[in-house]
Amino acid sequence: MRFVTGGCENSIKIWTLSSVDTSKIDDENITDKVKIEILESHNDWVRDVAWLNYVGYAHDTIASCSEVNFIKTSIKF
Description:
The chain has one helix spanning 30-33, and strands spanning 2-6, 12-17, 34-39, 46-52, 60-66, 71-76. It is mostly beta strands. It has one domain (2-76).
C-alpha cells in the first residue's frame, strides 16, 4: 500500500506500508513498517497532490501544486 502527501515543509512524501495487517502498527514499530521517500521540489507549501496509477505500465505519475501556483510532475518507476 502506498500513498502520497504534501505539506508545509515544501516537499512531497511517498509513504510505503510494508505490512498488509495495519492493525499491528503502533507508535513503537512504525519505523519498521513504513518507508518514507521525500521529493523536495517546491519552494513553498505543497497544497495539493495527486497520484495517477498506470495499471499495466512501468510507472506512475505524481502531480503537485504549491502555494505559489507552481505545478510539478514526478514520474515514479
